[in-house]
Amino acid sequence: MYIPLLSIVAIAIKRLWKQAVAFLEQAVHSKHAIIAHYATRRWCDSTERALNEELMGRGSWLGNRFRAEK
Question: Residue 52's closest CA among 35, 68, 39?
Fold first, then answer.
């Protein structure tokens, strides 16, 4: 009785782990795309500010909420 239950729990944990890893990899690839976009621009304060806004604001529930209210 315990073996099938442990098997189901192990499968669920394995799937959850895979989803968490996929989510984190997606976030990393997204940030690399943003950095590549700004790499071709002339570097100045406004470029740095825009890059920081995109990197810190994107994916942040709180950052997106305040950005929508402005």
Answer: 35
Q: Identify the residue whose tokens are 């968490």.
A: 20
59 dihedral zone (left: phi>0; alpha: psi -120 to 50; beta)? left
Give pLDDT tens digits for 32-65.
888 888 888 888 888 888 888 887 775 555 555 5
**Domain spans of the chain, in order of start:** 2-69
How would DSSP label each residue in 15-44? HHHHHHHHHHHHHHHHHHHHHHHHHTSPP-
- HSE-CB at 53 with a 13 A cutoff on CA atoms is 9
Predicted TM-score (pTM) of this structure: 0.46
